[in-house]
Amino acid sequence: MNETVVRDIARAEALSVPIVLILCLIFFGSFVSALMPAFVGAVAVLGAFALVRALTMVTELSVFSINVITLLGTGLAIDYALFVVSRSREQLARRRAPTVRTLTRPLPPPRQPPAAPCCSPA
Questions:
Q1: Residue 102, pLDDT score
Q2: Is the pTM of this model over 0.70?
Q3: 36 burial via Cβ count (<10 Å: 0-12, 13-18, 19+)
Q4: Could you tell me the CA-to-CA distances from 76 to 21, 58, 68, 70, 91 in Å, in that order?
């Protein structure tokens, strides 16, 4: 029973990884951007594997913990990358309008910052 489940999960991961990479390529728009979540996920998964290896010296863990680690590490890396990309696109959209205004009118003169109460001359 355990061997069948482990084999099925390994096959499901082997099928899902190329699909996820293709979807990342579509969503992020470039090959390098699509590989960044995979790289971050791989680093997170390797770190979690090291932690699990250390834990197995002390206690027993389920064989499914490896699959959970790979799914969570990859999923969270992709989710965070989508978050960063959406925030970056929002910031780029916001900065276009102020840049145009800055180029069409002069900047106001700089104001002198107020002195701290402990340092101002009395």
A1: 46
A2: no
A3: middle
A4: 14, 27, 12, 10, 22
In contact, 28 and 88? CB cutoff 8 Å: no
- The confidence score (pLDDT) of residue 112 equals 67
121 phi-psi bin (left φ>0, alpha ψ -120 to 50, beta other): beta
Q: Are the CB atoms for 70 and 52 separated by under 8 Å?
A: no
SS3 label, residue 89: helix
List CB contacts of 14: < 8 A, sequence separation 6 or more: none
Which H/E stretch holds residue 96?
helix 65-104
